[in-house]
Specification:
- With 460 residues, the chain is of the alpha+beta class.
- The chain contains 10 helices and 10 strands.
- It has a 4-stranded antiparallel β-sheet, with no helix packed on it.
Length: 460
């Protein structure tokens, strides 16, 4: 008949077991509490991950190519300052005869001859193939001011593209940091869970022996089996989480998704070095969004000035050549050099309204600078306070974890001296596992909050 013992009989429980198992069991508990990270020849540090991402990330490369595109656009705009050459040639067939009419005396009057021609004369070109060649070289003069403004605008496009690259880099670095911190937590939890499974398997074996010898209750045995099953389920979930996070990290680093690696532990938790005012000032100095907004304000002003410059007539130094072959009477070579002007005298107020619209865009861009600065300061304040809250919660979780570790240590000592039941030890270990998980969550929240704050001040 099964009794209800209040303490274990160590002699019965360990009957047939090796004499050194007691030390092995306690070593397993210490390994669980320490939560070590498995050593690997392919260990990845946070600094290495950030460096690789900045060098190889595909999204960053796309942003870098955008800078190159804007530089080419600037070079194209600069060519508008140089002389422009045009050449046109037409080879065709006249569909009707071309007739030139010369009234009497249209070519003048000569002494002793009289008017020439004396009567109306006609010169006709038959329907026949012909060639028409036209060439022009024009050097812009008054347009150079507007072209210069266009070049300045293209240069600002390049600067804006650089700020977008900086913003893209900060976003990628933030993703790398958060993925790294999640990996550290998942990797540590997986290691701890595997150690727990090893320990629980051995405890289940001992519990089976104890049940056969009637020194523990069947409910204790079932509790032990349930704890093992739960730990194995958690291990499977953590393995899947680690695999997914590794694939995400490899994608961020532009590596093969199957590349195997482990991550090193994060650095020591430290308070933020600056107060809120200094943090906000640094953000306004470093954030690419505020610099981009200022550049767009300058670009809007240049665009307004370029629109105003359209009131200036287009004046160019021009050289033209015209050669109509196979058409009688017309000269075969016509060359002229001069100054050409193109001026839209009246446009029904079109330029006026367009200029007014550009002025409104300038005001919008200036307002956007102030709004961006305000949003950045709000974001910094929010992330600054979240980091402080996360640090406080981490401190509480650390103290609770230390307390549970001490409780487990005391319980193991009592268990060794036959003063507590296996059920009590398992309950304390379950509590320790929960506190360990909470601590890891708090640690992850801290590093995530720090990454958010670093991103909000424009750091990489």
């Amino acid at each position: 008949m099964l009794g209800s013992p209040t303490v274990f009989s160590v002699e019965n429980l360990f009957a047939g077991a090796r004499s050194g198992f007691l030390q092995l069991r306690r070593l397993g508990v210490l390994l669980l509490l320490a939560c070590p990270v498995l050593a690997s020849s392919q260990e990845l540090t946070l600094d290495q991950a950030i460096s690789l991402a900045l060098q190889k990330n595909r999204q960053i490369k796309v942003a870098q190519l955008e800078i190159s595109k804007t530089e080419h656009d600037t070079a194209v705009m600069k060519t508008n300052r140089l002389p422009q050459f045009n050449f046109n040639m037409m080879q065709g067939q006249l569909l009707n005869k071309i007739t030139f009419t010369f009234p009497p005396g249209s070519l003048g009057a000569f002494p002793g001859i009289g008017p020439f021609p004396p009567t109306t004369s006609y010169i006709t070109t038959d329907r026949r193939p012909f060639s028409l060649i036209q060439a022009q070289a024009a050097q812009p003069l008054s347009q150079l001011y507007r072209i210069g403004l266009g070049i300045d605008a293209k240069k600002l496009d390049t600067e804006i593209a650089k700020e977008k690259l900086s913003l893209q880099e900060q976003g990628i670095v933030d993703d790398v940091k958060k993925t790294f911190y999640n990996l550290v937590q998942a990797q540590s939890a997986l290691t701890a869970t595997e150690e727990t499974i090893t320990l629980l398997k051995e405890m289940n074996r001992l519990a089976e022996n104890g049940l056969e010898e009637h020194v523990i209750l069947k409910s204790d045995m079932l509790d032990a089996e349930a704890g093992l099953a739960k730990a194995e389920s958690e291990s499977t979930t953590l393995q899947d989480t680690v695999a997914t996070l590794k694939e995400k990290m490899n994608d961020l680093l532009a590596r093969d998704l199957a590349t195997e690696f482990t991550v090193s532990q994060t650095s020591e938790v430290k308070p933020w070095e600056m107060d809120l005012a200094a943090t906000r000032a640094k953000a306004l100095e470093q954030r690419p969004e505020i610099r981009e907004a200022r550049l767009k304000s300058q670009e809007a002003e240049i665009d307004r000035r370029a629109k105003k410059a359209e009131y200036i007539p287009d004046i160019s130094l021009s050289m033209n050549y015209l050669s109509p072959f196979d058409i009688k009477f017309l000269p075969e070579n016509i060359t002229a050099v001069g100054v050409s002007m193109n001026w839209d005298l009246y446009d029904w107020g079109k330029k006026k309204h367009e200029l007014a619209s550009k002025s409104e865009v300038v005001e919008q861009a200036k307002t956007a600078v102030d709004e961006t600065a305000a949003q950045i300061q709000v974001e910094v304040g929010l992330n600054f306070r979240k980091l402080e809250e996360a640090r406080q919660k981490l401190r509480v979780a650390e103290l609770e974890l230390d307390a549970d570790r001490e409780k487990v240590r005391v319980a193991m000592d009592k268990y060794d001296s036959h003063a507590v039941l296996l059920k009590d030890v398992l309950q304390m270990k379950a509590s320790l596992a929960e506190k360990t998980y909470r601590y890891q969550e708090s640690l992850l929240s801290f590093w995530t909050a720090r990454a958010d704050l670093e991103k909000s001040i424009g750091e990489r």
